[in-house]
Amino acid sequence: MSEIMSLLLFAAAVVILLIGYPVAISLAGTGLLFAGIGYVFDLFDPAFLEAVPNRIFGVMGNETLIAVPLFVFMGVMLEKAKIAEELLDTMALLFGPMRGGLGISVCIVGMLLAASTGIVGATVVTMGLLSLPTMVRRGYDPKVATGVICASGTLGQIIPPSIVLVLLGDVISSAYQQAQLDMGIYSPKSVTVGDLFLGALIPGLLLVVGYIGYLIFKSVVDPDSVPAIPAEERDKVNDLGKRIFKVLIPPLLLVVLVLGSILGGLATPTEAASVGAIGAVVLSAFRRNLSWPILKDVMRSTTQVSSMVFMILVGAAVFSLVFRGYGGDDLVRDFLHNLPGGEVGAMIIVMLVMFFLGFFLDFMEITFVVVPIVAPVLLMMGIDPIWLGIMFAINLQTSFLTPPFGFALFYLRGVAPDSISTGTIYKGVIPFIFIQLLMLGLLSAWPSLATWLPHLVYGNN
After folding, report:
1. The whole model's pTM is what?
2. What is the pLDDT of residue 255?
3. Positive or negative, the Cα torsion across 72, 76, 81, 86?
């Protein structure tokens, strides 16, 4: 009976989330409701809830999670400083002489925004507002324009430093230690957020190369769909080299400084995030876009996003304790262990479930609800934790791009002009979905794409 209650608990949480209630309240409220029902019918031991204060103090004292508000601050500050707008205009002029050049510019700027904000919604909306009208006005096929904007926006899932990878790395780290303890290993190895950053670097860059490769292919087989910027428009700019140095180099240096300090082992992700936050303030001041109202707006946005993240963490802690109290983790472990195909069969089922959940739930909900349940079981089967984290991240990235429910499609639909139909957006993302599925296939065949760089830099973890 307790195992049935664990399934009902999970199903109830998903239904309440789909109805639209706040995530933190949905998770904590559902957990407490089922804990009360279980206590009344003698199916649940309330001693499990005694661990909630320790979980909350654990979240508040987790130094890795301090990187979240710092990276959010960095991204919001760069957005307010109009960095994206200037970057896009400059890159468009740089690649303007070639067909597909504006689309390539969107890919590169999307990658840089992903590395600075790490928030899918913010990147898609920003790129949609800035680049979609320009691309359509210059004769781009609306399917190509919408497809490249959505795909570039989802790079925030995988291009480090990403908030998604920070949160996922913390959850994977806890799951890895739990899996080793369950196997009787009392001196467990660790996996860090920095490991996931390194692991995501090659797959993320390969995705960007794949997107650009598709645009080049499109420029060859259907040149009219991706026209070049007219020469008379390009000639209006007198000193392109000076503009590139002024607009492109500073944010690029900031991203390199943040990532380089992590990858070089000079700083933890949290320390690097503080460097990024300060660098974003300096960059905004250099652009003369820093004022007290802007700073106040940035701090307010950062506080709102950070509060949401930590409230979800607390709600997820309550939910996971009640789920474990009902024996749900044992149920999941037995189910995955008994699947045909061993770890391959278990991995396929988990990836499919997460893919379909990505249609309806945000990455934070999946990260804090689903990953802690399935990751320890998969890790006990011998799956590499870094590879598992990157597979999860790209899987969710693909889910957010897939019709009819992909989040990135909804974000773009909200800012796209009425002349562009929803069907056009759906058709535009299909080639990019195939590129991401190809990336998942390559990672499955060659896990070293994700594991080689972390092991090279940090040695055997």
Report:
1. 0.81
2. 77
3. positive
